[in-house]
């Protein structure tokens, strides 16, 4: 009887081990699926990096949620797996300017900077759509940054790439006329949407570029007069891509 009991116990332990292994494999596959937009992170991830990722918790956030605001300390690293976040700066006069957006496969540079050096930045981050993200607590982030070569390289590369974007943004404010900035923004959005109408109000476009609705409306009317766009309520239609491109280069007809 003791031999039979021992055999049963052994089979039970083996079954439990197989179940745990299957559960672990299923978890790993699910995690890799969630992080499919982060190939640079997971393809070179070392053991310490995977330990961190396995500690991440999936969080759902509705559209319109403020994720962080001025002087707020970030307590987690966020890896967005679905949705979009707008990072922007506002002024005492109520004007806003979009700094950048964070989508699946990207990291928020201000989130990273706050986690690394503890400095709070005077900016806002708000979800534009319903969002899902993997959140990693600050202590685990720091531990992994010290122990994982692959994660440290990934963070440094991300900071470098975002810094380049911020330099371009500041250069645009400092040296480009507003009409050129609007034309370039329209060009980018029309290319991204394959020429489909852009759903945006004049006020929203003003917030996007850090100017006033009146200035945007005046410039868009000029573009319509040049027949590169057509304006409608809450929409901007593309009329002539070639003319719009010339305008964005400062070569459009007067």
From TrEMBL:
GO molecular function: DNA binding; DNA-binding transcription factor activity
Keywords, sorted A to Z: DNA-binding, Transcription, Transcription regulation
Domain Cyclic nucleotide-binding: 41-160
All copies of domain HTH crp-type, residue ranges: 192-240
Coiled coil: none
One Gene Ontology term, aspect cellular component: cytosol
Keyword DNA-binding: yes
Gene3D superfamilies cross-referenced by the UniProt entry: Jelly Rolls, Winged helix-like DNA-binding domain superfamily/Winged helix DNA-binding domain
SMART domains to which the protein is assigned, alphabetical: cNMP (SM00100), HTH_CRP (SM00419)
A Pfam family reported for this protein in Swiss-Prot or TrEMBL: HTH_Crp_2
Protein name: Transcriptional regulator, Crp/Fnr family
Organism: hydrothermal vent metagenome
């Amino acid at each position: 009887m003791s031999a039979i009991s021992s055999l049963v116990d052994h089979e039970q332990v083996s079954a439990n081990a197989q179940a745990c292994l299957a559960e672990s494999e299923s978890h790993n596959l699910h995690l890799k699926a969630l992080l499919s937009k982060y190939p640079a992170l997971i393809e070179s991830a070392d053991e310490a990096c995977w330990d961190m990722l396995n500690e991440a918790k999936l969080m759902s956030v509705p559209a319109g949620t403020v994720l962080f605001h001025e002087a707020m300390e970030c307590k987690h690293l966020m890896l967005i797996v679905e949705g979009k976040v707008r990072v922007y700066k506002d002024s005492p006069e109520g004007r806003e300017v979009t700094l950048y957006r964070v989508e699946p496969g990207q990291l928020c540079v201000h989130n990273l900077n706050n986690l690394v050096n503890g400095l709070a930045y005077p900016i806002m981050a708000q979800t534009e759509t319903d969002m899902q993200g993997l959140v990693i607590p600050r202590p685990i982030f720091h531990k992994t940054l010290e122990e994982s070569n692959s994660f440290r390289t990934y963070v440094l590369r991300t900071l470098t790439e975002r810094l380049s974007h911020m330099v371009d943004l500041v250069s645009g404010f400092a040296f480009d006329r507003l009409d050129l900035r609007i034309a370039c923004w329209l060009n980018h959005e029309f290319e991204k949407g394959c020429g489909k109408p852009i759903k945006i109000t004049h006020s929203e476009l003003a917030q996007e570029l850090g100017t006033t609705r009146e200035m945007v409306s005046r410039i868009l009317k000029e573009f319509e007069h040049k027949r590169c766009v057509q304006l409608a309520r809450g929409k901007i239609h593309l009329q002539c891509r070639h003319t719009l491109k010339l305008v964005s280069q400062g070569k459009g007809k007067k």
